[in-house]
């Protein structure tokens, strides 16, 4: 058990040890702020090549240089416009040849590393979304960077090593920066609408504006967890797309690398970091429901050599929502700085502060009146079914992170990521406390304060070596996470709960009373909880010719501090009439060993069949309504599939079939509100098909199809079927075994296409559109009724005004419309309540890059 001073001392020892390891490596390395040591420069200069490039436009000259030099280059193609390069001929070092080509032009270059050159234009700053293709060659993609168009080739998320996606034996999908720009998602849920295996409008989603991923995203039928820069997060700010460079979806168990993750998979996001080329961008946004947004994203070098760089991303937004009296407001800033201490050592510091005085979280509505009409009527999405005087939700989030890396030699490297984050929420709100006549609900005022603090550290050593014909990419690491949570709540128990009617009187002006001194009866609750998790992991990626084998394992230990819960009810005279709860013994320590194994074989023409087996583990500290603790969640998955990277094209196709078993699956307890029960073992089986493609320079698309069959495989639970029209159960109790798990659609498909017109008359203009289909879902655990399927359409357009006149160079206009037809639909329903989907949403912006 980790608690009190003993737990704090242990945390400090771990943090100090790992930090000193990193500092020690820096101290023993070269500290001069240069890109290469004299030895490296000598070796590079000795690598001469024969060049024969005549004078020609710079774009084609650079393509010839790439072919003849073997060097990788990254630059914005716009810097070559109207520029002619001098020819170069003779045998010389590649850098000398490039310098000759660029002599007399406004373009210059600097070395990013031993094999990569970055080009920039002296007369203007440029924005680079990612590496670009040069003469048939491409720079090596940053595995945490924005990708190229709609395609990312490499990832850290799947293995914690820089690995091609096609060599990882499970499904991994990347939402690139360009895709987010074209689709204009306002939160992570919206950014994942077109990803295979992911449902973003599940239970816990109410047409929200707030970028809060908790409980609203599911992978392969299981709740997801979000990791930021490789560390698990509890912060609602993690869903802010203005601070993200890319979003990765790892489908299937990932506990070997990350510890606590469900068998359905996890989300891996990367915060914005300083760029190698200058970036200056500001954007003004607007939309329906009174949305106004201002964002800024600036990155540049602080030293002449560029070895110290900074970046600042910021956002300010205010808007209403589709529901009256529910607003969304947010301001936030994300500053970061990177110091390339020497060619082998780098340190990045990142901070974040965000204030959200209105979180935009929507409401639930009665089943009768939404999914099922009540006397031919449906409740409008704009209806606020609640308390006007209990309607404030706010949060404050702060974060500090550092990333340190050092390469000892070509065999061994070191990397460490540390993050501290704190979230404070304060909500003066209500919950539905029963129903009256059809369409009526009782409101229970409820004021809560919630604080959580997370400290996490991931340290790993990794590298490459050969054993005969076998090539090994290995990693050994350890991580820990400490989580502290405090929760305080007060509810008005005066006995005069407001009753509202969704059609005749949906809004109440009742003033809640939260103090017994004011003459009312109140119920107070105080809860405190903390835990400490530590894990050690290892992995070896073995490659022989076209065959890649992945082996990995992890041991986790979880220790809990004492759990404190106290409930008291105080009347108007200040007398405590009842009290229960106290400090409870800490839950028993939990531990588990998880592992995975897989293989991929890449054929010469780019097709890569694969097979894998993996396990998962999630410790549990919650209890059922009787106070009985739940057993840890454990899962196993088999997955087989095909990945096809079209040779010499930015087209990646993925098809997979999976079989998942999870023991002790938790499901909402309808009888005891606010609790869950152990649903036994569930089985998820399905198929996913996905395409990410830059079909041409002007045409990009993403497409996906998902089939998921999630059922109770073994359970002792039973229930009667429910009739929503009579609000009563009927018939004999049925076993839940073999029944479908609620709120999981069996079929989903999506398609999104963006096209920029290449003809001169329409140059700079682009249009896009997409469709999203979600199939039917069951509303309870014995398949009593279904929530209908729905099909939604999205459209958009963008125009680079610089093509109209040079005066507007760098200015781009864009508009995006989701749910074009304003379709009324329910995303999920229980035996009495439904979540309404988001209506037509219009968002436009003007973005200026300089």
TrEMBL record:
It comes from Gluconacetobacter liquefaciens (Acetobacter liquefaciens). Residues 1-31 form the signal peptide. GO terms for cellular component: cell outer membrane. The lineage of its organism: Bacteria, Pseudomonadati, Pseudomonadota, Alphaproteobacteria, Acetobacterales. Transmembrane segments: none annotated. This is Iron complex outermembrane receptor protein. It comes from the Bacteria. GO terms for molecular function: siderophore uptake transmembrane transporter activity; signaling receptor activity. It is found in: Cell outer membrane. Residues 71-122 form the Secretin/TonB short N-terminal domain. GO terms for biological process: siderophore transport. Belongs to the TonB-dependent receptor family. Pfam families: Plug (PF07715), TonB_dep_Rec_b-barrel (PF00593). It is a multi-pass membrane protein. Keywords: Cell outer membrane, Ion transport, Iron, Iron transport, Membrane, Receptor, Signal, TonB box, Transmembrane, Transmembrane beta strand, Transport.
């Amino acid at each position: 058990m980790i608690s009190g001073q003993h737990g704090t001392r242990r945390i400090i020892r771990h943090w100090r040890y790992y930090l000193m390891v990193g500092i020690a490596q820096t101290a023993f390395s070269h500290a001069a702020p240069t890109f290469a040591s004299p030895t490296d420069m000598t070796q590079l200069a000795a690598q001469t090549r024969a060049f024969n490039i005549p004078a020609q436009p710079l774009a084609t000259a650079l393509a010839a240089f790439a072919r003849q030099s073997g060097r990788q280059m990254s630059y914005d193609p716009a810097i070559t416009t109207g520029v002619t390069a001098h020819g170069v001929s003779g045998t010389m070092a590649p850098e000398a040849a490039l310098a000759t080509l660029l002599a007399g032009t406004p373009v210059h270059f600097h070395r990013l590393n031993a094999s990569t050159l970055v080009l920039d234009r002296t007369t203007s700053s440029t924005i680079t979304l990612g590496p670009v293709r040069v003469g048939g060659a491409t720079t090596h993609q940053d595995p945490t960077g924005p990708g190229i168009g709609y395609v990312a080739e490499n990832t850290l998320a799947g293995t914690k090593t820089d690995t091609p996606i096609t060599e990882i034996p499970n499904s991994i999908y990347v939402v690139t920066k360009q895709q987010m720009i074209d689709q204009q998602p306002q939160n992570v849920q919206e950014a994942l609408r077109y990803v295979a295996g992911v449902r973003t409008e599940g239970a816990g989603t109410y047409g929200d504006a707030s970028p809060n991923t908790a409980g609203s995203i599911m992978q392969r039928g299981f709740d997801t967890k979000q990791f930021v820069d490789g560390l698990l997060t509890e912060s609602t700010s993690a869903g802010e797309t203005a601070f993200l460079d890319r979003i990765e979806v790892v489908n299937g168990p990932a506990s070997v690398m990350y510890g606590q993750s469900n068998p359905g998979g996890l989300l891996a996001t990367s915060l914005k970091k300083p760029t190698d080329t200058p970036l200056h961008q500001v954007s003004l946004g607007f939309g329906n429901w009174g949305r106004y947004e201002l964002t800024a994203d600036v990155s540049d070098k602080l030293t002449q050599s560029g070895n110290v760089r900074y970046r600042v991303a910021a956002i300010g937004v205010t808007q209403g929502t589709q529901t009256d009296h529910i607003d969304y407001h947010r301001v936030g800033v994300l500053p970061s700085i990177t110091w390339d201490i020497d060619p082998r050592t780098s340190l990045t510091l990142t901070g974040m502060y965000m204030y959200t005085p209105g979180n935009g979280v929507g409401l639930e509505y009665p089943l009768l009146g939404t999914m099922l009409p009540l006397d031919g009527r449906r409740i409008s999405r704009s209806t606020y079914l609640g308390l006007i005087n209990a309607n404030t939700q706010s949060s404050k989030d702060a974060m500090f992170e550092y990333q340190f890396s050092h390469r000892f030699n070509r065999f061994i490297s070191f990397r460490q990521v540390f993050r501290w984050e704190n979230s404070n929420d304060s909500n003066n709100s209500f919950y539905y406390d029963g129903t009256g006549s059809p369409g009526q609900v009782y409101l229970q005022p409820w004021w809560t304060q919630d604080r959580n603090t997370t400290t996490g550290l991931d340290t790993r050593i990794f590298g490459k070596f050969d054993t005969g014909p076998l090539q090994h990419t290995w990693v050994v690491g350890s991580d820990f996470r400490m989580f502290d949570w405090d929760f305080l709540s007060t509810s008005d128990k005066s006995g005069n709960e407001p009753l509202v009617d969704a059609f005749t009187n949906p809004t109440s002006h009742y003033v809640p009373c939260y103090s017994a001194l004011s003459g009312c009866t109140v119920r107070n609750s105080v809860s405190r909880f903390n835990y400490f998790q530590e894990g050690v992991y290892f992995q070896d990626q073995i490659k022989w010719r076209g065959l890649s084998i992945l082996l990995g394992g992890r041991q986790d230990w979880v220790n809990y501090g004492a759990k404190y819960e106290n409930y008291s009810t105080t009347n108007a005279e200040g007398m405590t009439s009842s009290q229960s709860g106290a400090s409870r013994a800490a839950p028993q320590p939990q531990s588990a060993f998880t592992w995975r194994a897989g293989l991929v074989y890449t054929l010469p023409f780019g097709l890569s069949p694969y097979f894998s087996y993996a396990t998962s583990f999630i410790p549990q500290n919650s209890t059922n309504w009787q106070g009985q603790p739940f057993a840890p969640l454990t899962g196993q998955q088999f997955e087989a599939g095909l990945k096809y990277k079209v040779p010499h094209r930015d087209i990646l196709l993925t098809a997979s079939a999976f079989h998942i078993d999870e023991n002790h699956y938790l499901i909402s307890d309808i009888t005891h509100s606010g609790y869950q029960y152990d649903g036994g073992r569930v089985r998820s089986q399905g198929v996913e098909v996905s395409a990410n493609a830059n079909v041409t320079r002007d045409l990009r698309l993403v497409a996906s199809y998902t089939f998921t069959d999630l059922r109770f495989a073994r359970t002792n639970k039973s229930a009667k079927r429910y009739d929503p029209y009579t609000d009563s159960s009927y018939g004999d109790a049925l076993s839940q075994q073999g029944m479908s798990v609620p709120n999981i659609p069996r079929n989903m498909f999506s398609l999104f296409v963006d096209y920029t017109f290449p003809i001169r008359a329409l140059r700079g203009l682009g249009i896009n559109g997409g469709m999203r289909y979600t199939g039917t879902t069951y509303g309870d655990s014995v398949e009593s009724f279904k929530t209908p399927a729905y099909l939604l359409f999205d459209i958009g357009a963008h125009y680079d005004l610089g093509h109209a006149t040079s005066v507007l160079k760098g200015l781009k206009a864009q508009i995006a419309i989701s749910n074009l037809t304003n379709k009324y639909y329910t995303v999920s329903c229980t035996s009495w309540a439904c979540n309404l989907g988001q209506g037509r949403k219009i968002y436009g912006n003007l973005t200026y890059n300089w």
